[in-house]
Every structure is written in structure tokens, then in C-alpha cells.
Amino acid sequence: MRIKQKDFYVNGLSYIVRSAVEKDAINLSKVRLQVDGETENLDREKGEAYIDESGFKQLIKEDSEIHNNLFLVAEANEKIVGFSRCEGNKLKRMSHKIEFGICVLKEYWGNGIGKNLLKESINFADSNGIKKITLKVLETNIQAIKLYEENGFEVEGILKRDKILSDGNFYNTILMGRFNG
After folding, report:
1. Could you tell me which CATH class the domain 6-130 is placed in?
2. SS (H, E, C) the chain
3. What is the per-residue pLDDT across 64-77, written as a single tens digit (0 to 9) for each?
4. What residue segments make up the domains of the chain, in order of their start?
């Protein structure tokens, strides 16, 4: 699915949120690799589960054709600085829900990019009959948890000792969901 581009101006930064297009694939590959190396909030370490240009082209193509998928990018200064993805399920019993994930380059944190990617994804879900959005968030990512709660998400469960971070300690993953109707 695709959405209409939206313009934002936050903290002196002008950026847009729009649907990903195939020409974004090479830049998305680079951004994802960089983000994975900047934070432990995501599942991957830098270079793990690498998606190359052709892999992103395939994702973008599929997501633009499937009615309950959405691939968004945030672009500032003609550069992709973040992205989000909503992925639906083809199984009929789970076709009412999507799973949401987000990545933003660290130097762009604090500019509402994650918040606006989330809000556009919620708008997409609500206007397309999607009844539930799910996501996973690391327990230490307090800022993200607060953002999700402010946007109607609630904790549905905890995956205990789910990840081992660079300090050698185990951390929990929080499962959150937002319901519409």
C-alpha cells in the first residue's frame, strides 16, 4: 500500500514521510546497516541479517502491492534518515493485524521522526480496517515505550531474558499492541 507524502518541520529540521519506492533500495540497505550499529534497541548487530539493494527492492515492490503492508521512509536533506514497516499476515485468522517496526539514524533522534512514522502507520491501519498493530520493544528503550503508550499501545506480554546485549546481561522484550474496534 502507499500513502500520500507528508511534510514535517520539527526543531528546525524539515523532513518528509512518504512511501518507499524502488530507487530507495540502495540507501535503505545502508541506513539499516548503520542503524543496527548505532543502538542495541534492535534485534540485529551491525551486518547481521543484511538486506542488500535487491532484497529491499523486493520488499518495497511487495509492500506497495499488498493491501495490509506499508513501507515508509523519512527523508531529510534529500537523505533517508529513517524508515518503518507494517507487515500484515496472509493467513485469514490473522489478517486483521499488522506488525510494526521502526529505525531512525541516531543523529536524527529527537526530531519526531519515529513519532511521525508511527502516526502515519496508525492512520494507515485505522483507515484500512486493520484491527490490531503489534510490536516488540526492548525493556530498556523507555522513550519508545512511552511513545507507544501515548499512541494507544498497551503491554500484552513480556519475553523474559529474550536478548543478550554487549554487557553480557539478559534483557526482556516487551510485546505491545494497539487495538482499533
Report:
1. alpha beta
2. CCCCCEEEEECCEEEEEEECCHHHHHHHHHHHHHHHHHCCCCCCCCCCCCCCHHHHHHHHHHHHHCCCCEEEEEEECCEEEEEEEEEECCCHHHCCEEEEEEEECHHHCCCCHHHHHHHHHHHHHHHCCCCEEEEEEECCCHHHHHHHHHCCCEEEEEEEEEEECCCCCEEEEEEEEEECC
3. 999 999 999 999 99
4. 6-130
